[in-house]
Amino acid sequence: MFLFDTFLEQPRRGKTREAQLIPHKRSAVWGIPHDKRSAVWGIALLLLTAGCLSAQNLTGYWEGKIGVTKSNSLTIGLQIEYQGDTLYIELDSPDQYFTGQPASKISFEDSVLSFRVPEFGLSYKGTLSTDGQYFTGVCTQHKQKFDCRLSQGAQRKSFPRPQTPAPPYPYRTEEVNFRDRDGKKGLIYGTLTMPKEQPKGLIIFISGSGWQDRDETIYAHRPFAVIADTLSKAGYATYRYDDFPTAIYRKSTTFDFADGVQLILDSLLQRTDLQNVKVGLLGHSEGSLVASMVAADDKRVKFTIHLGGVAQPFEEILLYQNEAILRVSGEMTEKEIENSVNINRRIYDIVLKSKSKEEAIKRIGKLWDELSSQLTDEENTKYGLTPENKYQIMQLFSSPWFYTIFSINPIKYIKKIKTPVLAISGEKDLQIDASVTLNNFPKYLKKNNYHQECLVLGANHLLQPCTTGSPDEYGHIETTIAPEVLDIIVHWLETGF
Length: 497
Description:
Elements: H1 36-39, E1 60-69, E2 72-83, E3 86-93, E4 98-102, E5 106-109, E6 112-117, E7 122-128, E8 134-141, E9 144-152, E10 172-179, E11 186-194, E12 202-206, H2 223-233, E13 237-241, H3 246-249, H4 254-268, E14 279-284, H5 286-297, E15 301-307, H6 314-329, H7 334-353, H8 357-373, H9 377-383, H10 387-397, H11 400-405, H12 410-414, E16 421-426, H13 434-444, E17 452-456, H14 483-493
Parallel strand pairs: 12-13, 12-14, 14-15, 15-16, 16-17
Antiparallel strand pairs: 1-2, 1-9, 2-3, 3-4, 5-6, 6-7, 7-8, 8-9, 10-11, 11-13
Helix pairs in contact: 4-5, 6-7, 7-8
């Protein structure tokens, strides 16, 4: 199977980050969801709030499927309730383990329900049947249209996540937002947690690839919320934030994300309650790379924590991911896996050697057509060399972020870090090779007695206890993050460096 399996996070506002309706498999690193989860959604995180309603009663749970491809569909649901004279709707995507996501831009007139979600480029318009039992309509995302019929009567699903913190909290939480450097636009929206006593330190969280909310919500898990809760109870202040607003995010690169972290530092460190507090960065997946980039040059950063960290070039990560996930899935023979990896290698090689994004896209399109013309329809489907995938891949490669990240070598920044580093990886991480990460950090870091590398046995890329490490398992696992990971972080912080 042809995969562009990045360590991207997703999508993901369950807020998750935006994911597109992509009909081929991707791994769900904390950013790109796997299979139909990736394939679809930004929608998984959409939702509706408020609007006026007619006399018709829509209260209840509505569920249906959208056909992403001829062989791939996604279940979605709407929980509709009245709040006074106002309609409130929560969108569920049970196939992606997302539930209870509110949205806006709702209208219900003359039996027609419609809403838009600009941040995901998505809209819906459906007509209520004369008996009031179902909507027949169309979901549109980024100019692609998908038939969607929603009917009443299904049982709404729930997904237990016992580690998710709930109020009342034994620490203070505060919404803290920042405008861009010109002061013109809102750029960063986040949550600051403050312990009751003077904080022992301040830790800024940095999410992985793909649009993500401040909790890095994925499959109903909220890993950053869990980590922040643990650290706040241990006496540390934390700040976690949503990725840039979608219109800005789409034009941004990893360098922009690093600048965003420095903007946060500039702003937070002006607060009187954070004066003389030691500051560190905690990054997961691509967030680990961003943490290294900032720590390499900003002396205000006194330590970094890397979860499922990045310590090798992007194309190597993608090739590892492609091979590792296919091998665990059992969907291909060894020869077919080798072919898939070679296809990916040829495409990534084009990106590395092209002088511009436009040149890369043109050359990849030519290679794609050449390869697909040599294979049968069945083989093209197996390797993902379909017209639908080509369209989606061209969109991905045209993004400033994707082309730029190929030019970034994490080792360049790791070599410049002088402060303590904690790197934690899962033994069964199929998104980023744990052995490479945990070897490269000590190999290239400047000597420091407080550096520590930890391999968590039986853990995946999300640092959950798992069986195979496959992204297919992420949503089935109730544990958001292995308790020993939380213990390792707190213990390391308490060493007193």
